[in-house]
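User: Can you help me understand a structure? I only have the sequence.
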Amino acid sequence: MRERIRWGILGTASIVPALINGIRQSGNGVVTAVASRDGNRAKEFAAQHGIANAFASYGDLITSGSVDAIYNPLPNSLHAEWTIHCLQAGVPVLCEKPFTATLQEAREVLAVSQETGVPVTEAFMYRYHPLYDKLTELLLQGAIGNIVMMHSAFTFFLQNRAESPASAELAGGSLMDVGCYCVNLARLLTDSEPEGAMAFERRTSVDDSLVGALLFPERVLAQVECSIEAYERGRAEIVGSQGSILLERPWFPGEARGEIILRRDQREERIETPGGNGYHLEAEDFADAVLQGRPPRWTAVDAVANMAAIEALLESARTGTSAVVESL
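Assistant: Let's start by predicting it. Here is the structure, written out as tokens:
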């Protein structure tokens, strides 16, 4: 039985070095190949990052037999196409968020995964951090009573409008690029799926900024705030009937330590959690799943549900009316 999986990477996106570093921190994976449509770019990237094999096409890497899993950080518009190619070739996929460009594409990827029995998961690295295990424990213990509402924000100023987050053709936009984290967090913490959505946006070719709300069972409300044209911010607050929890760094909680701010009974308590590198933890979990033949911690079903909520928010912003979140 193989002790480490061999990772292949499709493309040389700016996020790739973070994942490479995460894999190298793990004991169960090694990056052995990278592909680019530009063969020289693939060779340069491989040499720069100490990767043994470089391919001039994604298809050649996938069918090379030299990798056991693929990381897909291609532009959003290419996620479904190349993830499906991998699954049909029998190669498991860790697909960068958002899972696909549309809900229909997400369902197609899920169907292929189920037909082939080859796993795929969406790369929301934040949720692997130990902080979220502790946060889930606190919520289950009733630390803030019943959840009433929550708010999360992920904003940044995109310097170069030629990049994919500002491209409608590549399925960019603030909700797809960073707001998807906020949607995922709301679903994670409520452990349920939203029923309705309402959103407003500032739009050019894409939603440059979007503020939305999701309605969950038990009338729990979740506000989502995202932007690619605003000052960089990341924050989340969960408000309950008896207290609130504040996360000052929800998306990158910290490698040395994490911190949860619990407020109740007119007092504030700062709860320290172990630290961790989210990229390392997600890569290690996925590699373990491949090695052990078990499902990853979050399956494609979860990714499809996230896309359903995203699509409802986009529909509401487009139409100016509330939207129903499609069920699976």
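Now, to help you interpret it: The chain has a mean pLDDT of 97. The chain has two domains: 5-125+280-297, 129-276+308-324. Let me know which part you'd like to focus on.
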